[in-house]
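seq/struct pair 1
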Amino acid sequence: MPADSEVSARNAASALARWAVLPPAERSRRTRPGREAFLASLDAQIPPEVSDPADRAERVTALLKAHYLKMQANSMKARRLKREADARKAADEILDATGLADCGEQ
């Protein structure tokens, strides 16, 4: 019996293949409920005393932008941490290869 990760990978590949052949309008239709639920969750964060629909829409837009900026910041941090880890690993490999890693240790 295949491992769960193998089944999951096959299912994901199958879903992507089906998604790839759908027309854009159909893809948009299928994701609409999720988009609407997300926007509704943002709207729920706005105080109820803000009743003007235009004002609420403007605030939802601001919350959406804030959400994307947080995602951007998290992505930038993850890439920076990976770069730093890769640099440390490369430096350690160089030190190990040259025999300098043991210098200074007693």
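seq/struct pair 2
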Amino acid sequence: MDPRPIGTLDLEAQMNDMNSDGERKLVTLCTVENSVEASVLEGLLADRSIPAVLETWQSSALDGLFVQHKGHARMKVFEEDLAGAQQVLADFRTDSNTEPGADL
């Protein structure tokens, strides 16, 4: 069974269809370390209307063999959305590294 939510698979199929005309290119935004980070970042991007696709290295045949070396997955966005996605990523990573209660 594929670990990605159904919506992710549908979006990936749509993005592949859109890429077939050669006008829009997917680029790697970052590598995420686990499924929680992937879900949160995907949600933050969606809040800004930035579509994203996860390219995971997990499969039942390889039993996560590459995850330890490569991370959980690559988060990809359209090239024209990259600048906005990088800002979302920077904000997310800054917020993630803030100590709980630091702004109290």
